[in-house]
Write a structure and sequence with these properties.
The protein has about 140 residues and is of the alpha+beta class. The chain has helices at about 5-15, 20-25, 30-45, 55-60, 75-85, 110-120; strands spanning about 65-70, 90-95, 100-105, 125-135.
């Protein structure tokens, strides 16, 4: 990846809604060049999509938790498939160390997060979980 593409991705991470003309000025490129680069990055799969980050008011009503998951090694793929079916599981990552997976989950009430954590713990192939409720987000990119 070119240095300019990396800078473009950094700008889009900070504000995916920034106008192409503004991005072009910051990068010292023509607007059409920036549009072509964005289209190429999307085609190549480096940009998979765009998202919305909620403001503090909307975030305050949501409960999030980080869930560390130990799996039965023979059923790790099955665990991923099962967790993908749960819309409250926002992301899932394979990690090294004592646990095999880390899930970021989100619900709107304590009761629902409790029920979700129970469902994750009962999912086929899950051997053990440890959860931590997110108290506040210091920053996100």
């Amino acid at each position: 990846m070119r240095d300019t593409d990396s800078k473009l991705l950094d700008l889009l991470r900070a504000n995916a809604r920034e106008p192409t003309a503004s991005l072009a000025r910051k990068l010292g490129l023509a607007r059409s060049t920036v549009q072509e680069r964005i289209a190429r990055l999307e085609r190549e799969g480096l940009i998979k999509g765009y998202t919305v980050r909620l403001g503090d008011g909307a975030e305050a009503s949501r409960m999030r938790a980080v869930v560390m998951i130990e799996t039965d090694p023979k059923q790790a793929d099955r665990v991923s498939v099962e967790l993908k079916k749960m819309p409250e599981v926002r992301s899932l990552a394979a990690v090294s160390g004592s646990y095999d997976l880390v899930a970021m989950v989100e619900t709107d009430t304590p009761n629902r997060i409790d029920a979700l954590l129970d469902r994750i713990g009962r999912a086929p192939g899950v051997a053990r979980t440890v959860s931590s409720i997110v108290l506040s987000e210091k920053f996100a990119r």
